[in-house]
Q: What sequence folds into this?
């Protein structure tokens, strides 16, 4: 089945710097890759997603890139702000599960933005 | 939270007791999911539903059962709680045709003593 690896597990940056979180997946048939942000005590919030027919997607300060050949995708946050501090999760669709919408999640990255 | 509520939000119980967690949604989503979140494991799928009375197992379903008698409610039951089921439980919803695009509820923190 699908496996998703996420790195790094923790990331500390200065306010205004960029942050990059990387994920690799194992099943080349996966075709949907969402990113979630989770603040302390809250549920994961979908912040951006990308499908396999697109190489890059941007939404203001965040962007996601996908390299299907290498089977990895990355979240890029520019001009980081203290409110970006949270745990970020990547996920990949599980193609062997039919049309169920199953997602396989990475282990999470704790991002700390220092003022 | 995409109109999702979970109850209770916190629960402490003892080993061997049954526990039921409730997920309620107000936006008529066809697909509903139960995940557990543990340090170092991200989110893992327990069970999911693709319609009323239609459910199936996820990757960590042992010790859990689910029921969905109405579109808006998806119940997760721990028949006999164990300490290994101490976790944070999240419900998520997805709409038909885009069910992999999932929106999560606020979670239930469960402690099994």
A:
């Amino acid at each position: 089945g699908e496996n998703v690896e996420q790195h790094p597990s923790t990331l500390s940056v200065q306010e205004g710097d960029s942050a990059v979180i990387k994920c690799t997946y194992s099943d080349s048939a996966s075709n949907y890759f969402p990113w979630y942000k989770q603040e302390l005590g809250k549920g994961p919030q979908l912040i951006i997603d990308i499908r396999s027919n697109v190489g890059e997607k941007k939404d203001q300060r965040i962007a996601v890139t996908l390299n299907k050949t290498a089977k990895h995708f990355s979240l890029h946050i520019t001009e980081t702000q203290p409110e970006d501090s949270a745990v970020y999760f990547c996920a990949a669709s599980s193609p062997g599960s039919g049309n169920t919408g199953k997602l396989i999640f990475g282990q999470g990255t704790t991002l700390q933005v220092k003022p | 939270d995409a109109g999702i509520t979970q109850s209770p939000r916190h629960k402490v119980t003892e080993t061997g007791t049954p526990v039921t967690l409730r997920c309620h949604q107000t936006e008529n989503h066809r697909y509903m999911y139960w995940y557990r979140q543990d340090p170092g494991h991200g989110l893992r799928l327990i069970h999911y539903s693709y319609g009323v009375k239609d459910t199936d197992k996820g990757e960590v379903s042992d010790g859990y059962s689910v029921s969905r008698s109405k579109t808006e409610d998806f119940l997760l039951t721990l028949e006999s709680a164990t300490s290994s089921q101490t976790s944070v439980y999240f419900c998520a919803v997805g709409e038909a045709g885009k069910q992999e695009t999932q929106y999560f509820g606020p979670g239930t923190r469960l402690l099994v003593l």
Summary: Chain B touches chain A at residues 1, 4, 31, 33, 40-45, 48, 50, 56, 58-59, 90, 94, 99-107 (CB under 8 Å).
